[in-house]
Hints:
The protein has seven helices and no strands. The chain has helices spanning 3-23, 26-31, 33-60, 69-78, 87-102, 109-114, 119-132.
Amino acid sequence: MELLQKLKLLEENISILENIKEHVKLEDITANKRYEWELRYGLFESIQIIIDVSCKVTSYYNLGNPKNYRECIELLGKFNYINASHIKKYISMIGLRNLLIHEYATIDSEKLYDFLNSIDDFKNFIEEIRSNI
């Protein structure tokens, strides 16, 4: 999938996550597994898009040879494709993605729901990448 298509999909995901934030409360998530699944998958796919785009940009522009997803993000910051002040936020997203995949039974619903307050980080990533590719 082309980079711009991935960014468009991320925008669509952001819209859905914003809708969840607006209409679904923490109590709903803890009471109804369906809402938790929607939130988990929406966050997982959105974070995965950030990872995919980061690694593709790193490769396409020959920014280095990252050994992991974190290094893809760090290289984007090093070469000013993203704002250096956002690197830690994007890396923490990778940590959440790993938890969603490997620790799915132990994720606290409240912490997961609180991650909806970070939707602007996804928007920032889109803007930064679009303006630099």
